[in-house]
Amino acid sequence: MKYIIITYGCQMNVHESEKLAYICEKMGYELTDKREDADLIIFNTCAIREGAEDRVFGNVGALKKLKKKRPETIIAVCGCMTQKEQTANYILKTFPFVDIVIGTFNLPNFEYYINAVKKGRQLEILNEGDPDESVPYKRTSGDNAWVNIMQGCNNFCTYCIVPYVRGREKSRSEENILKEIREIVSEGKYKKITLLGQNVNSYGNDLKTGENFSRLLKKICEVPGDFKLSFMTSHPKDLTEEVIYVIASEDKILKDIHLPAQSGNNRILKLMNRKYTREKYLDIIRKIREKIPNARITSDFIVGFPTETEEEFEDTMNLVREVKFDGIFAFMYSPREGTVAAQMEGQIDEKEKRRRVNLLLQLEKEIQEEKKND
Ligand code: 5AD
Ligand code: SF4
User: Fold this and answer.
1) How far, in Å, is the centroid of ligand 1 from the Cα of 160?
2) Given this model, what pLDDT does residue 116 score?
3) 125 to each of 86, 122, 132, 348, how far by Cα in Å?
4) pLDDT tens digits, residue range 270-303?
5) Ligand 2 contacts CB of residue 166 (under 6 A)
6) How far apart are CA 89 and CA 95, in angstroms?
7) Which residues on neighbouring strands pair with residue 4, listed in sequence order?
8) In the prediction, which pLDDT does 105 show?
């Protein structure tokens, strides 16, 4: 029996697919890279932008023929897209050959759904999970080991679907994280450990027992062994001076900081509910560069947020010019149903969004060229 997992979206999904892979192999499935050969096909989906969802619809739809030829093949769709009940129901209705539709919190119980398929199609969307559940992983990212430190997000940036599909922030216990890190280090296969969370800087806020991100970083660095430590993603409003100091002073921590700015304009930042200003963002960059001169700073930007004017878009271009990031991701704003921004008046048309994103990407290319020649 063979399985294949098709993963979309962020590193969190990549890591969660490692959990699914562990469960599949424990059940006796072997990995294949061909959908036609698989007895179990899993789509681990992403809902962050419409494009990601469209690709999933296209790829799931394309399995119709395969399922006709091999009706015993089990097809499962899970992850952020299906955590939305409406989308889950749409998938069940539109693709009658899909056997399992589950959300982000059901993954640890994946074996149950596979076994239950004999009795009929499975649809279940849970609304909560335990960040400390202890399903092991089949690590698949070479010499990098991902370690999840928290679930969810409390920020409700107005464009973002994440808080709706990943729930509120829930931190894992420091003890369990450290235990996992010690196990990874003792295996001796991993040179790098990357901590994952939607907003790692607010790690521990929900625990009320003194845990916080800088303390966690320090404790991980105390684990004896030869490894480098990295983390993503940081929110500018929560990146403390203490964390900057710890990154600067610990040799084990890589000096890579991904700090999404999203926009360079204060009115848009406010509409996005980002809770910082352009000036505050630049201040953090200045502090990072002062304390960590060799820091590699990267960022994300969204262009064409509802009502964004040409001048406001120019503020984003100027911010990128000013900071000269070591790399940026630029996205066209994609309205996500259920979010505040999707309801806003003044949605910008696709053509204009594409024009702005191309200008930003062109600028990014120029900056990287310039940096190469420095
Ligand atoms: N439209 C476009 N980009 C988005 N992102 C999040 N939500 C949206 C959306 N609705 C981007 C942000 C975030 C990155 C992971 O995806 O820039 O930092
Ligand atoms: Fe989305 Fe904002 Fe949370 Fe990041 S911090 S996951 S952009 S709501």
Assistant:
1) 6
2) 96
3) 11, 10, 19, 33
4) 999 999 999 999 999 999 999 999 999 999 999 9
5) no
6) 10
7) 41
8) 95
What pLDDT score was predicted for residue 338? 95
Q: For the chain, where are the alpha helices, taking DSSP H only?
A: 11-26, 50-61, 64-69, 80-83, 85-94, 110-116, 162-166, 174-187, 213-221, 241-249, 266-271, 278-291, 310-323, 350-373
Interatomic CA distance for residues 249 and 217, integer angstroms = 11
Per-residue pLDDT of 10-54, as tens digits, reads 999 999 999 999 999 999 999 999 999 999 999 999 999 999 999
Cα(334) to ligand 1 centroid in Å equals 8
| Nearest atom (ligand 1) to Cα of 300 | 17
Atom of ligand 2 nearest to the CA of 262: 7
Give the separation between CA 221 and CA 228, rounded to whole angstroms: 9
Do the Cβ atoms of 17 and 51 come closer than 8 Å?
Answer: no
Q: Is the CB of 155 under 6 A from ligand 2?
A: yes
Q: Find the 48 Cα to ligand 1 centroid distance in Å.
A: 6
pLDDT average, residue stretch 306-331: 98
Does residue 199's CB lie within 6 angstroms of at least one atom of ligand 2? yes
Q: Please give the Cα distance from 134 to 117 (Å, whole number).
A: 24
pLDDT at 134 over 80: no
Q: What is the mean pLDDT of the chain?
A: 96
Judged by DSSP in three states, 41 sits in strand
Instruction: Identify the structural domains of the chain with CATH numbers, from first to last.
Output: 2-124 (3.40.50.12160), 141-254 (3.30.750.210), 257-374 (3.30.750.200)
- Measured from the CB, is residue 149 less than 6 Å from ligand 2? no
pLDDT of res. 374? 79
Which residue, judged by its Cα, is nearest atom 6 of ligand 1?
160
Is the pLDDT at 209 greater than 90, yes or no? Answer: no
Q: Residue 37 Cα, ligand 2 centroid: separation in angstroms?
A: 38
218 touches 246 (CB < 8 A):
yes
**Residue 30 alpha carbon to ligand 2 centre in Å:** 36
